[in-house]
Amino acid sequence: MPTVDRNLPGLEDLEAARARIAAMLLPTPLLPSRSQEAALWLKPENLQRTGSFKFRGAYHKLSRLTPEERARGVVAYSSGNHGQAVACAAALFSCPATIVMPQDAVQEKVDGVLRYGARIVSCEGGSDERRRIAEELAAKEGLAIVPPYDDLDIVLGQASCGLEIARERGEIRQVLVPVGGGGLLSGVALAVRALLPEVRVVGVEPQGADDLHRSFESGAHVRLEHVDTLADGLRTQSVGEVNYAILRAVVDEVVTVSEEEILEGARTLLWTEKLLVEPSGAVAFAAFQSGRVPRDVETAAVLSGGNISAPVLRSLLER
Question: pTM of the entire structure?
Answer without folding.
Answer: 0.94
